[in-house]
Here is the input.
Amino acid sequence: MEGGCRSGGVLSVAAARTVRPVLLSMAVVATIVVCVLPVSGIAVGGRPSFVSASLAFVGSVNLLSTVLLLRHFLDTGSRRALVLASAFMFSLVVMTSYGFAFRGVMADGAPLGGWATTSPCLWVAWHTGFPILLAAAVWPWPRRWFDPAPPSARRRAMWATIVFTTGTAGLVVAGAVSGRSWLPSAIDGMNTSELARFTGPVLVPVAALASGVAIVGAVRLTGPMRWAALAAAASFGDVVIALFSHDTYRVGWYVGRLLSALACAVVVVAILAEFGRLKHLLAVEADRLRAVLGRTEELEVLHSTLLDHMADGVLLQGSDGQVVTMNPAAELLLGLDTDELRGTAPRDWRFLRPDGTEWPLAQTPPMVTLATGESQRDQMVGVDLTGGRRRWLRVNTSAERATPDGPIRYVMSSMTDETQRHDDYLAGRRDRDGKRDRVETVIRAGGPQIVVQPIVDLRSDSVIGGEALSRFTGPLIQGPDRWFADAADVGLGAELEMLAVRSALEEMTLMPSGTYLSVNVSVATAVDQPLLELLTSAGVAADRIVVELTEHSDVADYPLLHLALARLRALGVKIAIDDTGSGFASLSHILNLRPDIIKLDLELVRGIHLDPARRALATGLLAFAQQIGAALVAEGIETEHELSALRSIGVTHGQGYFLGRPAPLPWPLTSPAYGEPALSLSPGPPSRASRGRALERGAG
Here is the structure.
């Protein structure tokens, strides 16, 4: 908004053109003053409302100028804008006080006192301070004095200026009000002309000098600030006319008030006009940018077409399919030299589909484009090379025509070597095919074998339930988790899980009476209708079934899962969360689902008697379970020390190799490893010796 200060001693033609409106406006003000002087003493009648309106206008433009200039200082750091803002702050305080001291403006009396000297003295103070501050703002000081203020110091400098300026102006007003007994009183009533003549020898030179300084500075500036010269000149004109007026409410007095209003308003009008000019320039620039963007979009289309063919190899074929030209990369990728490629038709080549089968000539991407004119994008094409090697190419094709509706002249094919990526894809596909074959074999055989691991009441050492676990047989040895993950990877996870659940429910008749059976399902299976239908029609008491969720992450739709679990709970089925304590995801899962049973992760149980931190976490989870009304079951108990540690913190349910190995139902009454009595399968507590020792280390 401010513009820069011009350098050099002689103004250029362009510089003179920018300051010309200011000089012409000053000439108009001077003409008005000269024309009014002869008639300045003519009385035209009292208009107190004119004074009120003019002072209200002056106060408004002073306030608006101050706000705009301070905002400009905060945005740009312009010190000139800060000094100019102080001029309008000074004017705002003094002229507002002038209104309160002028009889008949704010009230019948004068709120700042009825003394005849107060308002004239404030008038003199305004005509002294305001032009001086205007001149200080536009004077061509050394550049280093007006370098932009650093951003970190701007707000501090603004508030310092506000406090200093308003404080100084307040002292001036206080002096005019409190010093009424000794200030010049050679006036009568509200007439300011006598005071003006009394102070004229000082006031006129000060106002004239300030106007001259402002003019000199303005011609070296650009932007709205150069209009400060006109503000100073209008203030000087008011002083000159006041010297020739004889009383208030005369022609000279009214013109003086108008010149004061002009002095306060000219800069803010210039700022607003500059905003309008900038708005117009922005609109013009926006139109230009829209035109440029339109052209840019055309260039982007062309650029995109070129990028489609900026690949390792580029091949150009004619309308008959013969090769017209190619780059050296195409020769290398296709495994043919220039002589072999040039003049060769596609029928002499052998292309492969992405799955490795031979691709009929008419269906290859170049031939499809040649026949239909439609571009082919990201087509994977295989080429057999010498030595039994095979290269995979990502091919893009496009048809080139002389006119939009004309016949196809050429087909452009670009090709990029994707051998490693496609080989990886094929290897992954073969791996998935192998997984599918293995899983389908298990499904055709009726699903996995079911074994059940006892869940024990640690207070009575009696079995209260069991967890159904899957066991797989076959040439591939891998854990159940891996089998179910492979099934999910090939889209057979739900089917395999349902077979396992069905087989487990069929074993329920072999469970001891009064015990429950926990079956493991994924979230995807839990929300499926077939699980609800199976549990409804299984012929087993639903309150003896626990559905144990084995996934703790990637739950995309908790509301859907809540609905599915609510339907299961309505049957009487209980919900358990597995592997609690294994990470944040499992804890978040518990908070979302509020299960009936919380399974303490075996990694937390292992070595719990040696680790206070594990015991502390287990204690916290136990307290949490009690707060939400859930049972806590510790998994993976493998030693008597771990069992003792869990009992000591109040855990009442557990499972693990120390308590009982997974086994087909019905459970044996002796340990197959040591021939010792197993845990009691009846409600009565067994002896201490009957608990047995760890049958084998491993996951419980």
